[in-house]
Amino acid sequence: MAEPTTMEPIRVLLVDDQQLIRLGFRLVLEAEQDIAVVGDASDGVEAVSAVGATHPDVVLMDVRMPRMDGLEATRRIVAEHPSVRIVVLTTFDLDEYAFAALRAGASGFLLKDAHPHELTGAIRAAHGGDAVLAPRVTRRMLEMFGDRLPVDAAADARTRDLTEREQEVFVAMARGLTNAEIGAELFVSESTVKTHVGRVLAKLGARDRVHAVILAHRLGVVPRDSGRPG
User: Fold this and answer.
1) What is the per-residue pLDDT across 62-76, written as a single tens digit (0 to 9) for each?
2) Is 58 helix (H, G, I), strand (E, B) or coil?
3) Distance, CA of 195 to CA of 215 (rounded, Å)
4) Beta bridge partners of 89
5) Which of 54, 93, 174, 214 is within CB 3.0–4.6 Å of 38 for a Cys-Cys bond?
6) In degrees rounded to 5, what are phi and psi of residue 72?
7) Which ranges constitute the DSSP H helices of the chain?
8) CB crowding 149-158: b at 16 or more within 10 Å, else e
9) Dihedral, CA atoms, 177, 182, 184, 187, nearest 10 degrees?
């Protein structure tokens, strides 16, 4: 019998000030059986309103828009609808606005020129609580912001509450590995990894994997040049 999560499509809201980009994303996403586009918005003001009206699971959020940018819209949506996951869209992989949106509560980062399978994969990953950051993007984000942010002493103390297995999962998350890759490396099932990830996030007080990864690097849990195997 199929799991309940497969019965309902992932509800997606598209936010971008360029109509052609919204149309392009819609065409890609509507071809997927497990994804449903529930609406779109052309700026942050419309996005905040649309989230309340359409109840999406995932928002694809542009950062540079008139009236209200994606950064402020992300802050408001995360505050008012904490269960909604936001994937930031940008043209540049060194866009400081996009990285700031991640710090504001977004759950992932995606370039607008991403391939269709990367777009759909990012939506599924965000909805499932998995990572939506490539290791190179994580490294660049840390280069831009890591030295400006003080290490949270309380968070450092909370890492000592992790079990040995949870610590291994935490380090693997920081290296940019997906749940499937972590499972293969630690010889456990993907469902077991998901359980460990949930416990790690809860113990660290991290909203999602993105923030757990940032925390891991700030605390020096994993070397900055560490990444995926191979």
Assistant:
1) 988 988 998 899 999
2) strand
3) 19
4) 62, 110
5) 54
6) -65, -40
7) 19-29, 44-54, 70-80, 96-103, 116-128, 135-145, 153-159, 164-174, 179-186, 190-204, 209-218
8) eeeeeebeeb
9) 160
The candidate with the shortest Cα–Cα distance to 172, out of 162, 181, 160, 164, is 181
Question: Max alpha carbon distance in the chain (Å)?
Answer: 50
pLDDT digits (tens, 9 = 90+) for 134-172: 555 666 666 665 555 555 666 667 788 899 999 999 988
What is the model's pLDDT at position 164? 93
Tokens 């990864």 sit at which residue? 213
Coil, helix or strand at residue 23: helix
CA dist 84 and 39 (Å) reads 14
**Is-contact 29 60, C-beta < 8 A?**
no
Task: Give ∠ CA 87-206-102 in degrees, rounded to 5.
Answer: 30
Is the separation of the CB atoms in 111 and 157 below 8 Å?
no
Q: How far is the C-alpha of 229 from the C-alpha of 169, rounded, in Å? A: 15
As a whole number of angstroms, the distance between CA 228 and CA 65 comes to: 34
Contact 90, 62 (CB under 8 A): yes
